[in-house]
Amino acid sequence: MPVKQVSGRVTLTHAKGSSVELLLYGATVISWKAGTITEPQSIERLFVSSKSAIDGSKPVRGGIPVIFPCFGPPSHPEHMKLAQHGFARNEVWKFDSIIMDNDEVVSVRLTLEPTAGITAKYDKPFHLAYIVALAEHQISTDLHVTNTSTSTAYPPDNLEFQALFHNYIRAPANDVLVFPLQSKSYFDKTEASEEARNKPKVETRAGVDVRQFTDSVYEDAGGKYEVTWPGGGVEITVRELKDVVVWNPQQVAGVKMGDMEDGGWERYVCVEPGHVRGFAKIEPGKTWIGQQVISVIHHERRINQL
Length: 306
Ligand SMILES: O=P(O)(O)OC[C@H]1O[C@H](O)[C@H](O)[C@@H](O)[C@@H]1O
What we know:
Layout lengths: L2 E4 L2 E5 L5 E5 L5 E6 L8 E2 L21 E2 L26 E8 L4 E7 L3 H6 L4 E10 L2 E10 L11 E7 L2 E3 L6 E3 L5 E4 L5 H4 L3 E2 L11 E5 L5 E6 L2 E8 L3 E6 L1 H5 L13 E15 L4 E10 L5 H4 L1
Antiparallel strand pairs: 1-2, 2-3, 3-4, 4-5, 6-11, 7-8, 8-9, 9-10, 10-21, 11-20, 12-20, 13-17, 14-15, 14-16, 16-19, 17-18, 18-21, 19-20
The structure holds 6-O-phosphono-alpha-D-glucopyranose.
């Protein structure tokens, strides 16, 4: 069976050997295994900390958590009762359906609607659908956000939100470079003062490394990224997700995270496409779709990039 659902966990298996596992908790993808043309044996492409909870007691420290409706600490007046990164990553989603099940693609849809628990801290009407699709060398995740308000009042009852896919890409962090962010403007969240964190910097590096504690929010970042290391890499292309965050805590911040395994920060880089500077806005009855496609890179790229 290409799609299995057992105790809150959904497994997608592709005819060519790739696979995905996701939890209904947070709709969090916790594993994506794929090979390349030259090395077809499927290997794990995502990082999950061995100290992470995966029992639904806390957001997963790894994989691909879904961030909605706020990124970081809430700043929008409608989000003030929410925790950092909102609620989508720690609510139990519903398995809705298998969308595709053929030799090319296996895909499923999960949904999340307001519950009493959500409404107590966030009273906007919404519907979320999350589609995860697996191809031989690719995973895609699409978040459909619908404003289900039926209000016809003026001004319109818009839904204003941020959304982001918090990809923990398994990689030798000290050898990683992220392209092409040169000359993009970014906000450096590692700065000590609020004033410095809110002052845009301009990226001067051709390839962005994470050898130091890095927490950078690139605005209008271009929508196509390569995360490469000697001998490997992934490419990420997006739709409607204008910004990208590059994050690695390194030891200095990593040791302070209770659910991070020792040295875990050496084994991943987070490259997180999202709409996180400002807010996406949808009118009543309308749907917004944010998408990413992550593909394995088959051939060494670093020779050309350096
Ligand atoms: O610890 P979490 O709430 O999962 O957040 C983990 C990280 O997420 C993003 O990458 C933010 O830019 C970081 O500032 C934050 O530390």
